[in-house]
Specification:
Number of domains: 1
Order of helices and strands: HEEHHHHHHH
Distance between the termini: 56 Å
Largest sheet: 2 strands, antiparallel
Helix content: 40-55%
Shape: globular
Oligomer: single chain
Radius of gyration: 18 Å
């Protein structure tokens, strides 16, 4: 089957975002997906939480201005997610980016089509994002993962984290 926008989206959703196929309920008569039952990361959270960690493969991670110090494309993505949407003007000149702009725009479009909240629809999303990533930088999860910690340059991560924390505190007037 020739890949098009829709098959590409479905492929990413099933292969890269939702790999736990044992949690999918399918109607055997129609082979239609009827439910996703997954409690792995159940917790009380804000409406914006999924946009901080679950949708990375679809280009829908809302980052912070501090992360833009190390990755300018994350600032463009943040602006698209929180304000402008994925207009050609907003994503112009980004062909070699690590962000899959086409997929991010498709995700945004798909959320709108089904009436789901997008980051820019969630009141206070910008501040929620800043607070979420601030706490991640106060205690970076990467330092608790022994196997991963052995593969990274901890000095580089510490320096990056320090820059982020300085940016947060400066933004808040400290």
């Amino acid at each position: 089957m020739k890949e098009n926008r829709k098959t590409r989206w479905v492929g990413v959703l099933t292969r890269e975002i939702y790999a736990d196929t044992h949690n999918l309920l399918v109607d055997p008569a129609t082979n239609q997906l009827t439910a996703v039952v997954d409690y792995d990361f159940s917790h009380v959270a804000s409406q914006g939480d999924e946009f901080f960690y679950s949708l990375a493969q679809a280009g829908h991670i809302v980052t912070t201005e501090a992360q833009g110090l190390d990755d300018p494309d994350s600032l463009v993505l943040r602006r698209c997610l929180l304000t402008t949407g994925f207009t050609p003007e907003a994503t112009a000149g980004k062909p070699n980016s690590h962000v899959d702009w086409e997929l991010a725009a498709m995700m945004d479009e798909a959320l709108a089509e089904v009436g789901a909240l997008r980051p820019r629809d969630i009141e206070g999303m910008e501040e929620l994002s800043t607070l979420y990533w601030f706490f991640q930088d106060v205690s970076p999860p990467i330092f608790f993962l022994k196997g991963l910690r052995a593969k990274i340059n901890t000095d580089k991560v510490r320096a990056q984290t320090q820059r982020h924390l300085d940016a947060y505190l400066s933004k808040w007037g400290y």
